Amino acid sequence: MSFLRFALRRLLEMAVTLLGASFVIFGAMYLAPGDPASFLLSGRSASPAALAAINAQYHLNDPFAVRYFRWLGQIAHGDFGRSIEYRTDVSRLLADRLPSTLTLVAMSLLLVLAIGLLLGWVGAVRGGATDSTILVTTTVAVGTPSFVAAVLLQGLFAVRLGWFPTGGTGQGFADTVWHLTLPAVALALYLIGMLARVTRAAMLEQLAGEHVAVARSRGVPERQVIWRHVFRNALGTVLTTAGLIVSTLLICTVLVESAFSIGGIGQLLELATTTKDFPTVQAISLLIVALFMVVNLVVDLLHPLVDPRITLNDRRSAG
Length: 319
Description:
The chain is mainly α. The chain folds into two domains: about 5-75, no CATH class; about 90-319, MetI-like (MetI-like fold). Helices cover about 80% and strands about 0% of the residues. It contains 13 helices and no strands. α5 (about 90-125) packs antiparallel against α6, α5 (about 90-125) runs antiparallel to α10 (about 220-260) and α7 packs across α10 (about 220-260). It is globular and about 85 Å long. Pfam families: BPD_transp_1, BPD_transp_1_N.
């Protein structure tokens, strides 16, 4: 299967999946107990005229299908509705907060890839006491949830030592990096341990392979053996794990952003869920689903480049 055909097929699958997800997301908001109007009023009493005005403003008297397709049409034009809590367009809220979340995710991903791959490589190649130390360290990292790491790092390095800010995102590149360093570490810690263990296991499997023994018997330098015949062959497994890592980062930002008071998408989702801000919750949920699918698509397209043994037909069968 050609690259273009595979990409077009996956894009079509993504469109269908996103359509199905939009229906579930929109419908889930109306499965909550009680009348949607009561959520909009936040428990306050209202006259029949005021209640009728709310129902008319949010089209609550329209059939479900009519409301859904109207919402879908608005999204197609980039209109996610108006936030009930913030009294502004949801699109503006997303545009203001998305950069902070993407910056945090990017910093965390760099930490995960750099440290996780390095630890996995060193553990597999060195072995012995070094490998044992890395295994213990990564086990502790994997066993530490992001919100626990956030509290510990904030208490030690921000409150007690004062090396980093306790929260916020800062202004300007350097200030933003300074503010987001602790959140990025808290977000990355668990995933560093996971990637290190996966990399180590994949490289050990390759080291035990016959092709490595043949390469060494031919006098191929050890560095070249490790790079070309071990690490490169292990990259397929690592790449699959990297896709899961990005998805996990997007989910765990909710906890970390709340702990560090970062005005990103994660904190916005938590606040919108608490206040029953339906349009905001729906928009963020749909955005996260779309990001998940984009990550999976990128991983599928990169797999044949990383591991020539895998073809697009293999990815199609796996999908």
